[in-house]
What does this fold into?
Amino acid sequence: MPLFPGSPAAEGVQSSLFFETPEEIYARVFRELKPRTALPELRVEFCRFANADSFIRLEGGRLHVRISDLLAGAPAPVTEALAYILLGKLYRKPVARVYGHRYRLYLNRRDVRRQVHLVRQVRGRKFISGPQGEFRNLERTFERLNQQFFDGLLGRPQLGWSRRPSRGLLGHFDPSHNAIIISRLFDQERIPELALEYVMFHEMLHLRFPVDHNGARRRVHTPEFREAEKKFPRLKEVKELLRRI
Ligand SMILES: [Zn+2]
It folds into this structure.
């Protein structure tokens, strides 16, 4: 006697993967995670997001799943993995680690990464303030460090200040827009320039040492990166400084 008469799951998960629609996959995963709850009305939609993000929402008894169209052509097991991740998160149900692994493995595939990168470039508009702040100029900082640590050989990306003086994100390198963005926190006289230099140096190392992709793993700070970072003078002092600001 099949558990759910008439459903593809009744035939066994493996075979069902070949002909399930995304809605059917989400319905099957829902029944597995919430066996006692009636299946809500369910809609799965592929959207033109600027990245590979996906969202799930329960509204008025309806489940609405919005998935990046970058994943529209993904193999069914990947859609299934994402269904476990999203529904698990929504209902706070523990989900086997194999699903997270499978999903990351797919996103880390070279062709998928290239596609995500292109879509970000084309769709993701990015506001970049330009290097001149109120007190400090990022171009000057960049070029000084470029001479000091990279023989002046690092190509200068776009440079900008964040909109808000963020304490959580001090700086980041965005490869899709080839831009280094520094927290506006450092555009103040009271903040020692050494702190800004360190944050900029760190982001410049991201330019120099690309992210290492290996299977489902993604290593941003590689051993080479860490080694190079130690070349920054007064490293201990600056880390202490950053803790205080
Ligand atoms: Zn970093």
User: Anything to note?
Assistant: The first strand starts at residue 41 and ends at 47. The two ends are 64 Å apart (CA to CA).
